[in-house]
Amino acid sequence: MHNNKFILLALGVIALYVGVPFAIDISGRIDFFYTLTSVALLSIASAGVWLTFYIGRINIGQGAYALAGGYVSAILITQAGMSFWLSLPIAGLFCAVLSVFIGLPILRLRGVYFAMVTLVLTEVMRLVALALPVTQGAKGITSMPLPGELSVFGITLIPDFATLENPKIAFYWMAITIMIIAYAVLWRIVNSRLGHLCRSLQQNEELSASIGVNTAYLRVLAYSISSFFGGIAGASFVSIAQSIYPSSFQVTDSVNFMLNCFLGGLGFVFGPMLGTLILYFGWDLLFTTGQYQLLIYSTLLIMLMLALPNGVLSLFEKKKVGS
Amino acid sequence: MSTLLEVKGVTKRFGGLTAVNNVSFNVNKGDILSVIGPNGAGKSTLFKLISSFLTTSDGEVLLNGKRINNLAPHIVARLGVVRTFQETTIFKSMTVRENIIVSHHLRSKASLLGFFLGSKQARADEAEFGDSADQIIAFLGLEAIANELASNLPQGHLRALGMSIGLATNPMILLLDEPFAGMNHDETMHMVSLVRRLRDERGVTVMLVEHDMPAVMKISDRIVVINFGEKIAEGTPHDIQNNEKVIEAYLGSEDAAIGM
């Protein structure tokens, strides 16, 4: 049983790295690289939102951290000449630290009150980006270079993207690598004591405190990990788009990150990944319906949530129980 | 007997209302002490003040001579004063065993990072918690339901689970808020013997708030009576049953039965 799971996982990873590019090559749909790269990166931000759900908080503010992470990376690259590969973790850390200061007061709120405050965060971040001189207002930061070479002691680990024949596949590999790391971290958190404590927080904060859990600390910790994911996703996006504007991540994106979690399933670590995939492709597939796209899309979403309140992955779980 | 916990002139005001007014008493090590009083007398508020879920307006709570009121609740729990709840409070979507294991948090020696990385200490801790959880399950006779989801349990088992969550923290003093509420006679007697064994076998000092007078009279070494937020009597069950003030407080109220 355990071995089977491991083999399945390994096959999945190989399929992601080799199978998918091969299939895209054969079908000639090169645009799918960009689509799948986006899905991978969005699912990292969604993974963060999922973690805040896991401590019992509805987070509709991940767009704020994606935007902040994107700007930090863009500014470091264009104005300090830093390598993208170094700016990426710095962007994540910046968001983690920022979220500690934001989280300390607002994580005391629960339920719809926390959700409302986070909803405002994205808008606040957009206005900050418009106002600050360093972010260059509405003009944004454009014509950024592609990620450069990453080498350690003279050994090239990642070649300069600009010298590559097909940077699209390089971005794809980069995105899924970060995604796999992010989900491995998330999986490990959930399956370690840290995750059990988060669950105790989700289910009953008072009782959690009375068994000696420092609830305030744990909440902020989970929120900052969540925001770290958001910052990483934002910075990666910027490297692909080679530009960032105050409108790069908006309230709609924040809402989508949350929907991805709902749709995939709040009880499953890989829920946000699947949710992102379905939502992103669902939206694209409905493109042909023109002006009715949003109407059909939202109707389907509502129906899906009514039919599967525990997310799409709960389908799979039910089967397991039945057999 | 040595004094473990001192409640000194504790007062709690909510705006103009004084819920607990200048209450003082001592809890000796190894005692089972009950706090009784009519509905709304301030018993639960007193428990919340002792476990620091509420801040005191005045007065002090001392544990082994050190002040513990107005600290964060998790710090008070760490110092050994743990409260279970009036409502059957448990982690609903965990199994009984998971509930108990997660409540071992205070005993973990590994850091959260250690748990994340699966360090040697973390694995040792997990193994220890598992063993200890099994002991607690055996102690309370919960073996048959150890892997049940807590949300599926009947009332009697929920109380036992609530107590085992408290027990898992390895407390010096366990505050039980209405442990017998909603139980029939047999269940109550079973619970009474469990609380006794808690003290006798595990050396836990127990404070409880309870309405079930026969049970209180049976289980308590000492009783503190509170009415309108003030302490009106303190003593052995025998003293309390014969105390005029207490009888007066209870007469005419709906809790008239005082087990005499």
Structural class of chain A: mainly alpha
- Give average pLDDT of chain B, whole number: 87
> Kindly, what is the distance between the CA atoms of the first and last residues of chain B, rounded to a whole number of angstroms?
29 Å
Q: And the CATH topology of the largest domain in chain B? A: Rossmann fold
| Major sheet attributes of chain B | 6 strands, mixed
What is the helical fraction of chain A, as a range of percent? over 70%
Strand content of chain A: under 5%
- Return the domain count of chain B: 2
Regarding quaternary structure, what we see is heterodimer
Strand line-up across the major sheet of chain B: 6-7-8-3-9-10
CATH topology value of chain A: ABC transporter involved in vitamin B12 uptake, BtuC
Query: Widest sheet of chain A: strand order?
Result: 1-2
**Rg of chain B (CA only):** 19 Å
The biggest sheet of chain A amounts to: 2 strands, antiparallel
Low-confidence stretches of chain A: none
Keywords:
heterodimer, A: 323 residues, mainly alpha, ABC transporter involved in vitamin B12 uptake, BtuC, two-stranded antiparallel ribbon, 13 helices, 2 strands, 2% strand, globular, B: 260 residues, alpha/beta, Rossmann fold, 6-stranded mixed β-sheet, 10 helices, 10 strands
